Each structure stands twice: as C-alpha cells, then as structure tokens.
Amino acid sequence: MRFRHPDGTAVHVAYCTNVHPAEDLAGVLGQLRRYAGPVRERLGVPRLGLGLWLSRPVCDTLTADPGEVARLRDELAAHGLEVVTLNGFPYQGFHDYEGESEAGAAVPGSPKLRVYHPDWTTRERLSYTLDLARVLAGLLPDDVTSGSVSTLPLAWRTPWTPERSAAAAATLGLLAEGLAEVAATTGRTIRVGFEPEPGCVVENTTQAAHHLGGVDHDYLGVCLDACHLAVQFEEPGEAVARLAAAGLPVVKLQASCALQADRPAEAATREALAAFAEPRFIHQTRERGTAGGDPRGAAGGGCGDKGAPLAVDAHGEALGGSLPGDAPWRVHFHVPLHAPPAPPLTSTQGVLGETLRVLLAGPAALTRHVEVETYTWEALPPDRRPRTEEALVEGIALELAWIRDRLVDLGLKEETP
C-alpha cells in the first residue's frame, strides 16, 4: 500500500515475509501465491507492499542470474505486489528449531543467538547486505528510485572488544562505499538501517547515536522497531529526537508490538506469561527501571528519566525469578498489532501508535517505509495461533488494516495505482 503524506512524501506500507519460512527461491515464489496475494485480496487493495526476507541461499540464486531477479519481479507484479524494502537481519535458518528449552539462557554459542551471525565484524555480513542492495535495486517499481534494507545492530553484545568495534567500523565504511557504487551503476539509492535490539551492541537509540553517529548518513541510518523501542522503555518522541540530533535518518519503521505485563508478580499474570514461553526465538525481557541499573551488566541508558530497565535475555529467566516483578515487564515477543492478548496481559500497541504519530503526523514525514513485522504467529500460545493458511492470511490482513486506519487518522491519504 502507498500513502501520501501532506508534505508530498510517498509512504510505503508492507508486511515482512520473515513470517514465512523459505530457504530457496521456489519457497519465496510459493509465498506469493499462498500468502501475499491472498492477503492483498483479503485487504481489498489493488497493490500491496512486501518486505521480502531473502535468505543467503536465495540471495545467491538471485545474484548469480539476473534472469531470476526478473522472474521474481514478474511474479510480484502478477500478484499485485511490490517491493521497496528487504529484511536483511536474519542470514538464514531463521525458523530453524534445535530443541533448546525456553528457560535456557542466551549464552554465546546458544542456538537462540544464531540470528546475530554473521555480524558486522565479518565480510560475510557485508557481502550479503550489498548483494541484497543489488537485488533490491532490480526489484524496485519503475516509479520508485530508493529502497531500504534493515540489518542487525552490529552484533550481539558479547564478546565485544575494541578490536571488534574497529573491525565493524571498517566494514561499515566499505558498506557505504558499496552502496554508493550501487547508486552509481543502477540509478537507485539503497539505504541500510541498523535495527536497535535489546541485548545487542546497539540496543537503544542512545547507543545508536554513539555507535552510528559518525557513519555515512547518505546511505546508512536506523531501522526503528517499535517492539524493541517499547521493550527498552524508550519514549518515541525522545528516541526520534535523539536520532535526529545525531544526524541518523529513520530509513524504516518496523511496526510491531511487544508483550506487556503490568503486574508481573501476580500469580495469574505469571500463568498467562508462561503460555508465551517457547523455545525457537530469543525473548529478551525488561522490567521498567526507576533509578537505573542492569543485572545483565550491559550498558543501559536511553530511557528518558526513568532509568535503565532491569534486564534478562530469556523470558524463562524472568519467570524463574531473575527479575523482581516490582514494576511492569515488556517481553520481546511480537504480538499481533490489532489484537492485544487478553487480561491480565496486554501489548505495547500504544507505543506503536505514538511512534507512528511522531514519525508521520508532523509537517514532514520522518520515514518513508513502514513494515509490519509480526513473525511469531506460529509461536503464539496454541489458542491464539492460526491453524490454517487462511487464518494466517486473515491475521496479516487485519494487521495491515489496523495500520491503514492509523495512517489515515494521522492525515495521510491512501493512493491507488
């Protein structure tokens, strides 16, 4: 979907296909037929945006043969779909499950941390991201000249040494040079947004300003994930102002909601939270801070005057007593935008709404790309999990309809081809 901001900026809305497992091009093409096309039809729009996740093997196929890029572009058009953004955070195997219990701590070497590898100290991450940029340049609609790729926030926080920091800085310099070359050769500008995430080297906007403030802002910026922002108890207005002061553009907003428990010490709340314990993804959990402090030992900050949140890396650790439960919890578990869980739990839907307002209700649009990124539909408690493909299509369409209504309320106008 496309919207027009009052300042004339075109704002693109998509949903991220990392909700669908696919490790080869045939799988990606199958997603268009089985899910994305039906979502567009269910939503009743002539054109729908996708934030494609292309794993390393899929990217290899597309870069090896330009004809395959043309084939993918044709298939997108045949289903009334378009692509202006890619999710380049997971490298491959995003939906793999190796049997680790949810209660297990996210320690170096844990399967839960595979999504953060390779990181930005490596040439593998650089090569993958530049290949994605080249592929995206070939997929952009004819009337669109810029796209975005989201990526991980440098690395998981451990181990992080001065040597690794220097290696990452050098790699980011090569990334900016490579993106400039893509622009020169294709006429399309592709920007990369680093996505602050709890537990990483860059987990909040204060750290983004510190680690990324000196990068090439023509091609590099921030992908702001509203779930991550909420889990870190950051205020959207303060966060966006902090990024602006550092000269960091918001190249993409990932529209997402975290799981929230206002009274985590109560037995009924603990029982409800336990239903969301699952082993596939890491679910960092934070308790609202009052005067700072972080039992995990990582750098905090960036949370306004409320202090750094108390933090653990696994939902099971929090339920096991690693957090006191004296203040509200927020869990890195993407829950459907339009449907918060039943009491005593809720979601951070209000934070997402405020983030949309801060970025898009002012005199100028502060981002051009909005991507719905609820990848955890199959990890929801059994009574909330879609049981058929049609149910998943319905859920994604309802999320997109929720976003559409919010944007219209903010004064944007939906466009038709």
Give a written overview of the molecule.
α4 (123-139) links the parallel β4 (81-87) and β5. The model is unreliable at 98-104 and 291-305 (pLDDT under 50). This protein has helices at residues 25-43, 56-64, 66-78, 123-139, 162-186, 205-212, 226-231, 236-245, 267-274, 315-322, 349-360, 389-409, and strands at residues 2-4, 10-16, 48-52, 81-87, 146-151, 189-194, 220-225, 250-255, 257-261, 285-287, 310-312, 329-335, 345-347, 369-372, 413-415. α6 packs parallel to α8 (236-245). It is built from twelve helices and 15 strands. The strands form two sheets. An eight-stranded parallel β-barrel has the order 2-3-4-5-6-7-8-14, surrounded by five helices. A five-stranded antiparallel beta sheet has the order 11-10-12-9-13. It has 417 residues and is an alpha/beta fold.
Fold blueprint:
Layout: E1 2-4, E2 10-16, H1 25-43, E3 48-52, H2 56-64, H3 66-78, E4 81-87, H4 123-139, E5 146-151, H5 162-186, E6 189-194, H6 205-212, E7 220-225, H7 226-231, H8 236-245, E8 250-255, E9 257-261, H9 267-274, E10 285-287, E11 310-312, H10 315-322, E12 329-335, E13 345-347, H11 349-360, E14 369-372, H12 389-409, E15 413-415
Parallel strand pairs: 2-3, 2-14, 3-4, 4-5, 5-6, 6-7, 7-8, 8-14
Antiparallel strand pairs: 1-2, 1-15, 9-12, 9-13, 10-11, 10-12
Helix pairs in contact: 1-12, 2-3, 2-4, 4-5, 6-8
N-to-C order of helices and strands: EEHEHHEHEHEHEHHEEHEEHEEHEHE
Mean pLDDT: 92
The major β-sheet equals: 8 strands, parallel, barrel
Low-confidence stretches: 98-104, 291-305
